[in-house]
Amino acid sequence: MIQRRVLLVEDESNLRRTLTDYLMSEGYAVDSSGDGLEAQELATTQFFDIIVLDVMLPSCSGFDVCRHLRKNGINTPILMLTARSELNNKVQGFKSGADDYLTKPFEVPELQARIEALLRRASVSARPQLEVYDFGQIHVDFLKSRLSKNGETTVLGERECRLLRYLIERKGIVLSRDELLQEVWGYKEIPLTRTVDVHIAWLRQKIEDDPKAPQFIVTVHGHGYRFAG
Ligand code: CA
């Protein structure tokens, strides 16, 4: 069972702590922030299954964060939290791209129920897995595990295929080696982080004009890899 990753954005530190503790005790991995811009940075550089986002935040509002993420193609489910007095902001919330809305004060189990409903909906309505994808001079057919570049076709190994799809589906997001191992290889214990690097090198041989100066699968030093096609 993969641990779900929640980004909790709430500037009231007591509430943030309470919610973090509760969600962690329910088995979620929780990252939290009390600042709009910091949250935006986190959400664009790391993968989360869901974002719980307060509206009134320092530096920029939850609506701004939400709009920014959607504009950048990040479709992570977003649950917005708002004070009762801001209730007429609800319409604005949905317009900014939020998926659901919860009015403060709320009971914590209610928050969890909403989170679970959104996660279920996201997994049911999840786009069908990517079947084909084009970038640069490259066409990838994930169903046939084939990749053609300038008309020349090569076969992708099963792991290469899954790894490339995982990277492409999270385009622009930095993915750590640990995450890739867990999600693409399914390892709970990490036996060999280099496994990821080796497969990345193979993929680069197939897709990059100059594998030593990759344009598509970019190394983010100290963090991992990012697809930039
Ligand atoms: Ca607030």
Give the averaged pLDDT, no decimals: 88
H/E series, N to C? EHEHEHEHEHEEEEHHHEE
Report the β-strand fraction as a percent range.
15-25%
The CATH homologous superfamily of the largest domain: Response regulator
For the CA atoms, what is the radius of gyration?
Answer: 19 Å
The strand count comes to 11
Bound ligands: calcium ion
What is the CATH-assigned architecture of the largest domain? 3-Layer(aba) Sandwich
Q: What is the tally of helical segments?
A: 8
Give a short account of the largest sheet: 5 strands, parallel
Tell me what the structure shows.
This protein is of the alpha/beta class and 229 residues long. The chain has two domains: 5-124, Response regulator (Rossmann fold, 3-Layer(aba) Sandwich); 132-227, Arc Repressor Mutant, subunit A (Orthogonal Bundle), CATH 1.10.10.10. It contains eight helices and eleven strands. The strands form three sheets. It has a five-stranded parallel β-sheet with strand order 2-1-3-4-5, sandwiched between helices. Strands 6-7-8-9 form a four-stranded antiparallel β-sheet, with no helix packed on it. Helix 2 packs parallel to helix 3.
